[in-house]
Description:
Blueprint: H1 2-27, H2 29-37, E1 48-52, H3 58-70, E2 73-76, H4 87-100, E3 118-124, H5 132-139, E4 147-153, H6 163-169, E5 174-180, H7 186-196
Parallel strand pairs: 1-2, 1-3, 3-4, 4-5
Helix pairs in contact: 3-7
Amino acid sequence: MKKFLCALMMAVLALGITACGGAAEQSAPAPAAKTETAAPAADGGKKILVAYFSHTGNTEKVAQLIQSKTGADIFKIETATPYSSVYREVTEVAKQEKADNARPALKNKVENMAQYDVVFVGYPIWWYTAPMAVATFADGYDFSGKTVITFCTSGGSPISDSTPDINKWFKGANVIEGIRAYPDDTAATEKWLAGLNL
């Protein structure tokens, strides 16, 4: 009888251990669900920002298209003192700012720039380069190791006119010269974006 009770106790004990082991195995996949949620995005996990300066709204339209196609965050570069809406006045101010290598104060700031791997930078061409507000933006952050991809809007100047200044302003970044985009030619911008393989 003692042997029978002893064997019964051993069987119950073994069953209890097996049941606990089974519970541990069943609960093990739970962390995997968290890993899936936090897994990198299909784009390789790159965090993208579209930063742009726009005076008349043309560059803003292109920036919004890029943001919608890439799923990026978006940031409008705005000066603390707005530029005049009178064409002649704004061209004179822009010309003087370029001559002075000015850094007009900005109204806002990007929170946690360090999180971004790729930064699209958009602007109109003013006096054969980017507006000096873009230089202020560049001075405000550390772009070392980031990829900066430019795009511009312009009535006639190519984006290459602005590239020497962009390379100088965005120190430490891998600058990729982008396109002169047209707000109404979304197909061309989309084709260009597809070719970037982000």
